[in-house]
């Protein structure tokens, strides 16, 4: 039982964030093109996801979290429109040297792309 104002421990759906201005670079879902994270939120490119190389970002939007997996200390997440796990959020790290991962997301590189938001109007 949860008290008023607290959320259940099993699932949580973050509130969708408003779209940033068109000139802001983003990481997007390869399948549905929904924005997932600002490129400014990148923490590291040196991560490994379940299907290969991944990136670590501070914040993510448009993802629906699954149930916590205590053995992995993480929550699998999927893009709201596409389904299929493509992202993991760390909720606790067992090792003090890994605390920087807590609350952050791993996005699999094979399932995202970087939208630089450049246009012909940006040319000198």
What does this structure look like?
This protein is mostly beta strands and about 120 residues long. It has a single domain (about 25-115), classed as Peptide methionine sulfoxide reductase (Metal Binding Protein, Guanine Nucleotide Exchange Factor, Chain A, Beta Complex), CATH 2.170.150.20. The chain contains no helices and nine strands. The strands form two sheets. Strands 3-4-8-7-6-5 form a six-stranded antiparallel β-sheet, with no helix packed on it. Strands 2-1-9 form a three-stranded antiparallel β-sheet, with no helix packed on it. A hairpin with a 5-residue loop joins strand 6 and strand 7 (about 85-90).
Summarize the structure.
Helices cover 0% and strands 36% of the residues. It has 124 residues and is mostly beta strands.
The CATH homologous superfamily is named: Peptide methionine sulfoxide reductase
Number of strands: 9
Proportion of helical residues: under 10%
Which quaternary structure do these chains form?
single chain
Query: Cα-atom Rg, whole angstroms?
Result: 16 Å
Shape field = globular
What are the main properties of this structure?
single chain; 124 residues; mainly beta; Metal Binding Protein, Guanine Nucleotide Exchange Factor, Chain A; 6-stranded antiparallel β-sheet; 0% helix; 36% strand; globular; disordered N terminus; Yippee domain-containing protein; Yippee_fam
